[in-house]
Amino acid sequence: MSNRSSLFHDDPFFTPSSQSPFFSPTPNPLHYDQTLELENSLSRLSLSTSPFNYPPLDFAANGPSGVNSTSKIHSCYDCGSFGGFTPQSSNLCSGSYSYPTLGAANNRYSSSYDNGFFCCDPLVRQREFGSVFSVVPVSNGVQQKPPGVCSAANFLNGSLGNKRSNNVAGFGVDERRVRWFNELRRKVVMLAMDQHLCRTLQEALKKLTTEEFSIIFMELTNHVAELMVDPFGNYVIQRTVEICSEEQRTHIILMLTQNNSQLSKICYCPHGTRAVEKLLEHVTTQEQRDLIVSSLTPFAASLAKDINGHRVLLHCLQHFPEEDNRHLLNEVANKCLAISIDKTGCCVLQQCINQAQGETKKRLISCIIQNASLLAEDCYGNYVVQHILSKKILGVTESILAQLKGRFFHLACNKYGSNVVEKFLQDSGEQLSACIIVELLDNPNAAMLVVDPYGNYVIKSALLASSGTIRMALEQLIKQNSMMMLSNRYGKKLLAWFEQGKDKQALH
To answer: Ranges for the PUM-HD domain (predicted)?
Structure first.
């Protein structure tokens, strides 16, 4: 008893007020056996809700403040320790453990969940972590797994496997699984948002029975919107979508679309976009598509301009039937101008034109034609006009030409408009190109085109697209202004290109 008593007085957490008749300095033979028996009984009690807990992510390798971090104290759930001390008569456990260190910055324990250092004082563990910890011993300087207790990752994998395992702390395999599952139910959202444990949870979801998965599924879907925008939770939702049933997938969509703006807000987040895309990949019924389209349609224009949201919109356009996409495309057509002059929107609108069919496509093109004059000069809108011209749709090129008639000289000298004029000359055919060239040559300031930073490229394209009388008129324009061109940076380049072309023609 003297040795046992000295052990307790050496404990830094021991105070005189905690003494009881069982710890009397004077040995009492009548109480010795009762004391030992009671201590052994108490040592098998766990202050946590379950012996199968998850380790914290913030452990450190040293002991708490004021405790010698190098001291080794026998403590194990299986061997019957309590309060950090093991009766000397116990030989059930040969592992030893070290105290964790209170972090200086945040006064918390810190370490990897796989490294498994722990505090031997149960009150400290309960106060700091509740039941979220795991016990891992240190033996001869090497971390060992104590009998029947695993780290979170190994335990989750092992507890759900088909292999038989020994009873742990008096619990059979079936009861162990039940206790583990009850613990998981209370922590599934927390695990899903953890950087490391979310991966273990994803693997665990695949090993659950149908009944178990249904219970976990309901807990996840109650927080589905929050998890989809979480940096780690979104991966758990993606895995859930992959393995859930069609009815459960419909339930997820109902949860996301019960608020009209909720789904679109998720799409604006980079993490949410990935989760929604995964959900769209597994949509199988018309009901699911109707719910998604009706929720996204009012926000189609803003999604088209968003750097993340446009991916969801394009996914719908590429994988949903035309009848479902019609509502989205009509909303895009209503905001065609605003989308066309946006950096992201101009690219999305081109894809919308490619995917649209029938009346919906005509409406989109009609909106672009009506705004062609403004779009041609815009830094992003000009790409939309060029895209329409490259399609060479019957009647569309003529309609755009009519919209821009009388403004081609101005556009030829514009940084962005000159691209549209060149596209006309390259793809509209010789007859329509001749109309544009004649308009350029009839302008009183036509000579300025050969020395203009952008106009000189238009003249070059005009020479390539013309023949006969029109080409001769362009050559005459260059010859008459050759002296001016020699003293100009851009004119000099155009003249050199023109002379090189003449030399090649002479050789042929």
So the answer is: 160-502
Distance between CA atoms of residues 335 and 337, nearest Å: 6
pLDDT over threshold 70, residue 105? no
Average pLDDT over residues 171-197: 82
User: Between residues 178 and 268, which one has the greater pLDDT?
Assistant: 268
Tell me if 193 sits within 8 A of 227, measured CB to CB.
yes
Which helix (H) or strand (E) covers residue 315, if one does? helix 309-319
Measured between alpha carbons, how far is residue 306 from residues 200, 264, 266, 301, 319 in Å? 33, 11, 12, 9, 20
Mean pLDDT check: name the lowest of 53-67, 236-250, 264-278, 282-296.
53-67
CB of 116 closer than 8 Å to CB of 155: no
Q: Is 493 helix (H, G, I), strand (E, B) or coil?
A: helix
CA-to-CA distance for 93 and 79, rounded, in angstroms? Answer: 5
Q: CA angle at residue 241 from 237 to 244, to 5 degrees? A: 125
3-state helix, strand, coil in the chain (%, to 5): 60, 5, 35
The full DSSP string for 112-160 is -TTT----S-HHHHHHHHTT------EETTEE-PPTT---HHHHHHHHT
State the CATH architecture for 273-405: Alpha Horseshoe (1.25)
Contact indicator for 285, 250 with CB cutoff of 8 Å: yes
Query: What's the pLDDT tens digit per position in 351-410?
Result: 999 999 889 899 999 999 999 999 999 999 999 999 999 999 889 999 999 999 999 999
Using CA atoms, how far apart are residues 159 and 181, in angstroms rounded to an integer? 9
Q: DSSP of 205-237, one letter per residue?
A: HHHS-HHHHHHHHHHHHTTHHHHHTSTTHHHHH
Rounded CA-CA distance 226/234 in Å is 9
Which of the four pLDDT bands, split at 50, 70 and 90, describes residue 87?
Answer: very low
Query: CA dist 147 to 3, 161, 270, Å?
Result: 27, 18, 43
The residues near 268 (Cβ < 8 Å, ≥ 6 apart) are 306, 308, 309
Q: What is the pTM of this model?
A: 0.66
For residue 163, is pLDDT > 80? no
Using one digit for the tens of pLDDT, what is the confidence trace for 222-272?
999 999 999 999 999 999 999 999 999 999 999 999 988 999 999 999 999
Q: Pull the structure tokens for residue 159.
A: 């507890």
Domain boundaries, given as residue ranges, for the chain: 1-150, 273-405, 442-508
How far apart CA 170 and CA 9 sit, in angstroms, is 32
Count of C-beta atoms within a 10 Å radius of residue 77: 20
CA atoms within 13 A on the CB side of 348: 33
d(C-alpha 52, C-alpha 153), whole Å: 12
Residues 6+ apart with CB under 8 A from 60: 100, 101, 102, 103, 109, 110, 111, 117
Read out DSSP for 352-416? Answer: HHHH--HHHHHHHHHHHHHTHHHHTTSTTHHHHHHHHHHHT-TTHHHHHHHHHTT-HHHHHTSTT
